[in-house]
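>> Question from a student workshop board

For tomorrow's exercise we were told to take the sequence and the ligand below, predict the bound structure, and bring the output to class. My setup keeps failing. Could a helper post the expected result so I can at least see what it should look like? The ligand is threonylcarbamoyladenylate.
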Amino acid sequence: MGVVKATPEAIARAAELIRRGKLVAFPTETVYGLGADALNPEAVARIFEVKRRPRFDPLIVHIADPREVEGLCERVGERARLLMEKFWPGPLTLVLPKRRKVPEIVTAGLPTVAVRMPDHPVALELIRRAQTPIAAPSANPFGYLSPTTAEHVYEQLGEQIELILDGGPCRVGVESTIVDLTGEEPELLRAGGVPVEELERVLGREIRVSREGDRPRSPGQLPKHYSPRTPIQLAEPGQAAHTQLPEGKRVGLLLFRAPGVALEGFAHVEVLSERGEPREAAANLFAALHRLDRAGLDLIVAELAPEEGLGLAINERLRKAASSFKRAGFGTPSARADDKRKIRGDPG
Ligand code: TXA
Ligand code: MG
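>> Workshop helper replied:
Here is what the output should look like for this input. Compare the format with yours to find the bug.
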């Protein structure tokens, strides 16, 4: 059926497909999701097949009302309530102890489940009409760039999905922030659409960043991913335009903000935000990377964002995109030892 504009009729049809155990791609404010009935293990199994995602990488369960959390999670607690009240609907995912009702395949056997209420009318209407929570990873093949338009989904997964609801480009453009609330202290598992500084302000405390080597709470999290097929080389803010171009190669440039200097020799240039505005840059990130990846380049030089707010989410994705190519002989500047930079991987 391919891509269909997200009219009320199309959403109703999509909800019916979800109820029948089929897959539907749908827009959220962060990225497009590949959804199935979260309470139907066979339907969820197809998500893993279509994405070629390893079964050990758990999925996020999407709900349309904060009250649904109680049905899926145990011991929800004050911190969770505070964050839900402040940031839902929105790009924040909470990891909480799961109830029996949540199938093992959704959580990859973990005793916890990740839940979020997306801030997108199409996603919310789809969940409501399906009358079931929807498990959904980003609608990309495992390890590849996340989709922020319906066309991205179609190009990557195409006919394997029964229906792709087109709700236009995603407003936030990077995935949700993931916070684990099952331990003594809240832990950041992934930087994303809600800046961690805002979470800290609301909780009135620092949020620990989960580091590699910690107990494997999210076993699927690998250092690589969000990767284009073209090798990526990172540059510190302001340095990208001065990169020495390798002889005879087609090099593309991904800039966080407009360069102060004239650019020479680059085959394709993308500027995420002329004025260097992190929100705008995040919203443009994946679409720019998709275009660069289609431009027939030998190398993409990508400028990192300033290391704060949404800049953290942007940089986390650029570092992971770059890390798969380190061994191929392309240099990347080493991340500073700062805690916030060493967030565990997010592969899917
Ligand atoms: O913005 C988003 O979060 C998008 C949209 C579609 O909602 N979804 C998304 O899903 O990014 P995905 O599957 O690409 O990334 C979900 C991440 C994975 O890295 C997974 O390991 C982690 O969430 N995760 C899921 N359940 C978890 C759990 N119980 N404990 C820890 N991490 C979990
Ligand atoms: Mg993903």
